[in-house]
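Q: May I have one protein plus its fold?
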Amino acid sequence: MQTPRIPVDLILKNLSEQQKKTKDRIKKGREVLTGELDTRIASTPYDIVYEEDRVKLKHYKPEKTSIRTPLLVTYALINRETMLDLQPARSVVETFLRMGIEVFMIDWGYPTRKDQYLTIGDHVNGYMDNIVNFIIAKTHVPKINLMGICMGGTFCVIYSALYPEKIKNLVTTVTPTNFDTDKGLLHIWMKNTGPEHLGTTYGNMPGDLMNLGFLLLNPARLMIDKYVGLFNHMDDRDFVENFIRMEKWIFDSPDVPAATFKQFINDLYKNNLLIQNRMKVDEKTINLKKITMPLLNFYGKYDHLVPPEACELLTRAVGSTDTEDICFNTGHIGIYVSSKCQKEFAPKIVSWLKARD
């Protein structure tokens, strides 16, 4: 039997070619990284039309309105609402405006130590209700459309159950409402977290600590692979600019008020009270059957933070007969930033709202 020969000459040739490509990439990458980069976030013009404590309300006005009812977007307390306007030409806000929706968006700001006692009720019955009343008065409509994202979507579900007379249509995206699942490491961790101790130690739940936890959910991809990807594309200015924009957003993480964090962990992750109609906010029981307005529910098939099992029961739990689930083949953030989802996500919301305006 003949021993196979190792093609040493071919291996050396490939190594030489790869060495030259890497050298050229590093040279061009140095020019890109040391040159001028456009890494602005949230560049779509807006006005601040309402302020209360740390909370602000952004107002985006389209050139021509095609839907009479304005849309209020509520992001999570974790990370920032700038995700919806991360970069020009790939912005959910831009698409909404181009298609004629008047958009209001809550900026929760940065909690300080004095905010540590604010509960979910303070955010929902306080800030959110004041903002909804302001928008109704400003735009002269009897109801508004409401869109919630992640934890902000949970707030919107609670709000819509408490104030159904003020909400015309409800849109939820990657919104956890069923916490009785072990799909996703986050749910396992949260069920074994002692929020009382964290609140006592830090006052508020530090955004940096939460960010570290999110990175550790998938360290190979979130802490190694993406930087390898940056090295492999460091000579591509567009790639580098988009990478930096995303990094800016990821590490812009406000703290979460301790009382809200404690209530969210205990009532939802540990006891799963919301989907069972047993959760209380300011002594009022949240009954999902009171959500009788149309409901559009988005979630991601590969979401490692809010898996489909945490989202898909909502449409069956509410009282509305006009509900729709849409599952994208993407993760938690991909719904808002991937080029494929960009073509489907915001346009679907606009067409859905138009049909119910």
In short: The chain has a mean pLDDT of 92. DSSP finds 14 helices and ten strands in the chain.
